[in-house]
Design goal:
It is a single chain. By secondary structure, the chain is α/β, with parallel strands linked by helices. The protein has 19 helices and 16 strands. α6 packs parallel to α9 (194-211) and α10 (257-270) packs antiparallel against α11 (292-302). The longest helix has 28 residues, at 6-33. The protein is globular and about 80 Å long.
Length: 544
């Protein structure tokens, strides 16, 4: 990357992420289509896209933090953000390995730029990625990364960053075309490795970011002619991707190095395709197992697992996908409690943890998982309206009919889901759900982080804020009293049903006291209470 100043370095990282995301967006379906290893579930391109989207979002957040000043982030800040974003957003086997590749590069580039640093960055990336995989297999993205690093190392002495990146790209291209001769599953399908193709796409974007010009030779797969010898001449570890465990388990894990080493051993005995990446107390764990519960339990014993994702892909292995359902609902929810409630109602859920709103790619993936011809999307957050709209457009381009009900809070989503009827026409269902959401006023309690001006006056750090329809209406000292005031204000305009969603740290017996208050102060109003779990806000309130 340019060495003249910090600004071009940081901007080059930002540009690389943007170009890579755009390129993977164009090639995602093509990469998905050649995904046959380690599981032929057709999602390698999607997983790489979602991982890079998370990396790009993290870099954008670093730039946004500098908007009030005149400076831009340093190169070190930008590459570290890129690596961290990829780590927390890594999807699937391919995305997890990519996160480790970026982490290896970031560790070197954070200390300086230039051609020599890029050589070392690519070399460390390949080595770290290989070390993260329990049983490395040749003919995969690991081989492509190795060859890219080797080609970069052969670049002319004194070569600048662009020349080294270009050499790595050419080395990766050649390695990718050779992958069918190294892995039987690829040879039988007549395709190159999907993860390796994704890496070639990323390196092409890197060339363009540091040189200002796209590679002169865009990648086109060379037709592969299988040799006459049988597969025994081309061994592969961990099977060939056509059979194996039924579940993919992924989670982030907060744990120390020693605990993670024990976890690796335990998970390796439970299944295959084990990849553990990260460091400094935060890890991304990926494994294929038959006993998903045991894999999660192992994480609990090692530390604190969260953002747990379990995917059943047994049907994908046989390519016997069920016929799409007529209609489904995809809902963004702030906590595990509401996620369970919505799943019981038949919805596909996307968890939005505090400070970690889902990206459009994550919503698109959820729409795909819903496996329906028609999908109603409930963003349940006013700040997600643009993200939801972008996801809907992407899904429509894939042939799915999608309608976004503009729910601004989880309680509006609950109201909309309650009137959902898949047997009526799509338009009628969307209208009914939209009307139910619109008829639900929403509120939440929050804890003030600092002294500030609000629409209800000045609050101090630690005050309890009661927000109605997004605006601060009440400032209180404790949760129960503030909740009662918020309820009284909302019910002053009338209402028939109060919905309470309790956070995991709400005071004991809060729901009982609030239900009693509603019964005594507001006649003919019913109350329903749900456990929201870890949702950020101590209490969510809806009034219909």
């Amino acid at each position: 990357m340019p060495q003249t100043a910090d600004e071009p370095d940081a901007v080059a990282v930002r540009t690389w992420c943007a170009l890579a995301l755009d390129a993977l967006g164009r090639e995602r379906e093509a990469i998905d289509a050649i995904n046959v290893y380690p599981v032929a579930d057709g999602d390698t391109g999607t997983n790489l896209y979602l991982t890079v989207e998370s990396a790009a979002a993290a870099v954008e957040a670093v730039f946004a933090a500098h908007e009030t000043g005149t400076s831009v982030p340093s190169a070190a800040d930008a590459v570290r953000a890129m690596a961290h974003g990829a780590l927390i957003g890594a999807r699937g086997n391919s995305g997890t390995i990519l996160a480790q590749l970026l982490r290896g590069m970031a560790g070197v580039l954070a200390e300086g730029t230039g051609g020599d640093r890029m050589r070392l960055a690519l070399d460390r990336a390949a080595a770290w990625a290989r070390d993260a995989v329990a049983h490395p297999v040749e003919g995969t993205v690991l081989t492509v990364a190795d060859r890219a690093a080797a080609a970069a190392g052969r670049a002319a002495p004194g070569a600048d960053t662009a020349e080294v990146a270009r050499a790595a790209y050419e080395g990766a291209r050649a390695a990718l075309d050779a992958t069918p001769g190294q892995l039987p599953a690829l040879a039988r399908a007549g395709v190159v490795d999907a993860g390796g193709r994704g890496l070639v796409t990323l390196l092409g974007a890197l060339v363009q970011a540091v040189s200002g010009r796209a590679p002169e030779r865009p990648y086109e797969a060379v037709p592969f002619v299988p040799p006459p010898a049988d597969d025994t001449e081309c061994p592969a570890a961990d099977g060939d991707g056509e059979s194996g465990p039924a579940f993919e388990v992924i989670y982030l894990l907060e744990a120390g190095d020693e605990a993670v080493e024990r976890l690796r051993t335990r998970l390796d005995a439970l299944g295959d395709s084990l990849v553990v990446v990260g460091g400094d107390g935060l890890w991304n764990v990926h494994v294929h197992v038959d006993d998903a519960g045991a894999a999660v339990e192992a994480g609990v014993e090692a530390g604190r697992p969260y953002r747990i994702r379990i995917t059943h892909f047994a049907a994908d292995r046989t390519h016997a996908r069920p016929e799409p359902a007529r209609r489904a609902v995809v809902a963004v929810v702030p906590g595990e409690g509401l996620a369970a409630l919505c799943r019981e109602a038949g919805a596909t859920t996307v968890l939005a943890r505090p400070g970690e709103p889902p990206a459009s790619g994550e919503l698109v993936e959820a729409i795909r998982r819903a496996h329906a011809r028609e999908v109603v999307l409930l963003p349940n957050d006013a700040d997600l309206r643009h993200t939801a709209a972008a996801a809907a457009e992407q899904a429509r381009a894939q042939g799915v009919r999608v309608a976004v009900v503009p729910t601004r809070a989880a309680v509006q989503g609950i109201a909309a889901l309650a009137v959902h009827e898949p047997d009526r026409s799509f338009d009628e269902d969307v209208v009914a759900m939209t009307a139910a959401a619109g008829a639900t006023r929403y509120a939440e309690l929050a804890v003030a982080e600092r002294q500030s001006w609000t629409s209800a006056g000045i609050c101090q750090a630690g005050d309890i804020l009661g927000l109605i329809d997004g605006d601060v209406a009440v400032i209180g000292q404790d949760v129960p009293a503030t909740a009662r005031k918020v309820l009284d204000r909302m019910l002053a305009a009338g209402g028939e049903l109060v919905t309470l969603v309790l956070g995991e740290n709400t005071p004991p017996l809060l729901s009982d006291s609030l239900e009693q208050h509603v019964r005594e102060a507001h006649l003919a109003v019913d109350t329903t209470t749900y456990e929201g779990g870890h949702q950020g806000a101590p209490l969510l309130i809806g009034v219909e």
